[in-house]
Amino acid sequence: MRNVKERFVKRKPGSYIIPSPLNEFLALMKWIREKTDLQALFERHLRVPRQARVYPDWPFVVFLIGVFSGMAVPRIKGFCSSITSARPWLAAALGMVSLPVQSAVSRYLCAVSLAVARTVVSLSLQDSCLCGPLISDPAAQILDNRGQGWHVFGFDFQVKAFRERDLPEDGGSPAPVRLGPDTARKGHQGRKRGEKIQSWAHCLHEGTALFVSSGVYPGNGDMHDALPSALEDIAAVCSRAKIPREQVLLRIDGAGGHFVFLALAVKQGFHYLSRYANYALLKDPGIQRQLNACRWRKVSSASGAGPQRWAAELAAADLAQVPELLGLDVSGTARLVVTRFAKTKDTSSNGHEHQGHVYELFLTSLPAEAFGSAETAEVYFWRGGEECRFSQSNRELSLNHLFSKNDGGQLLAMGVGKLVWNLRAQIGARIAGKPVPAVAPQPRADVWEGPLLLFPDAGTPPGSAGNAGQPQSAARAAFGGPTRRGRVSAVLRKMDLSEEAERRGVVWDAVTPALICWNGLKIPYVHLSRESGEGGISLIEFESPPGVCARCPFRVKCLGPAKTNARKRYGLRIPDAFRAELLAAYARRDGERPRPPSDNAAVLSACYPPAAEPAGGALEMAPSGLFPAALRHRFSSAARDLTVRVGIRFSGCAGTVTAAERKRRRNGRRRNWDERNKLNVIANNCAVSVMYFHDEHSLLKDAFKS
Fold first, then answer.
1. If residue 414 lies in a helix (H) or strand (E), which one and from where to where?
2. Residue 2's pLDDT is what?
């Protein structure tokens, strides 16, 4: 095979006009070389070994940038076919002798380690977010009801399975093979045998649609591994952009609705908002009484689509009750917000349905003075715009395509695609020039409803509008009053079971009374029982409410490989000092009848008062005023107006073969990678000129000047 450099220097001098579909690729590369340090970053951190040497990494990164910026449907094979005639001239315009071929790119992606890909992708996305004016633009923030700006970051986690292509069933077909080595190992939790499964994590800034983090995890990954990495990337961007962390909101879908994820966000100094799937709370008579007594605020809808929702505050949950065995030292207050809407045939939701209404729960740490119950629900449902941007990225850059069966190679390819996405928006903002005027907040107008008797069987708490004028005995009966459970609960509040609860890995809460598990959920008292081998009652039994453990992320660790409907039980010994008083309270009095079983595990909030909602600010919330899609399209249209001409000129003697090169060829020795890297550098006797011709009305020229 002839020397690549000899073929290059023996080419006749001349010029070539690059095809117009590749103009955006060359414009991006020009921007990267002149306005950013991304090339130095990739060369410093990206090291992919090949036997005893390393790959020349930058040419492969350049190739991937071309895949995502030079094609309508990004594919490695399609890009190689589209640049066949322009390949040598395109390489010369990029300062290289040649570009990698399709097979070399595939081998390279298969050799990239996951750890190296995570480092280089995180750093490159951070640089691309900060190389332009977008993320610091005030129009990229949302405004709360006090007129204060907030940066919202959306996190999404999904599991992707790539099914093997079917083969014809005849004798000449090859045997089927699995797409990845992990799918054959014991204990792999795949959907189908032979599928390649990866878990992807995406995180973007809502106002600018800039990706700040990306992750790929083998098999059915765990969000507990993905979220801390995304939080570190968000913290790095906020530190470099000088964004106060107390003005940052992390918004996750229902898969992240757990106290442990809220604690992780609060530990970084961010606020948190997610849907909360513990709908067993809504079966609690105490919560139902609270909902009967509260007033509901109308939730505004920016699009006007969907059912009309009403929101209310639930009693706050103390974040300091998250067990220390989680390894998180955080403090703060978590809020629970509930929404309801009328159930119709055309509406569907993942909430809890009760008597014609659908109820949804939201867990957040946002301050109630800035985001009331209606604003909290409204901010969450602005997630629809975030999902549209994820869909746009898949449609424009095919980020949901499998580029490599290796997890590290897939992460590197997706990271380069997101880098191209960010640079398009940043260059488009430079072309636009003028900043977007901030959205003027409007006066706030609240619409209230209630109190409503939504749960007739639960009654209403004392002192509320629902049972005003009732005698005190009736009010006590609504709370459980001096019944058997009420007497036992009063004695349990006097006890200190902290030491025994700590030995069992839980936290004792004497106020409710209940135990607090790893996930910060309360496990209420249910009854007293006998210990095996004991003659009398000696244990206080606690049991989790129905459906709570099924959605807990620690279910397997806590209950083992049990059924999804299993419930956690704890038995704590009765202290000797309170044995007589507790047994006297537990004894059934004359005329008392046992409560139905459905009420046994529903006393954790029997004494919750109605939650009062702060007045908050006097302004309506306002979404961000940027349109990132328009900025990206502005850059693409400006790049189409370019005309790129590449010229090659030689001086002196070209193509001289040294004595060492003759000896190498005679002995048939293959070149090492150091020698191959040098071959991909244009020789000193060759001059390459790249000329960019702009139309009179082209804005790209002014953007490069700035």
1. helix 407-432
2. 40
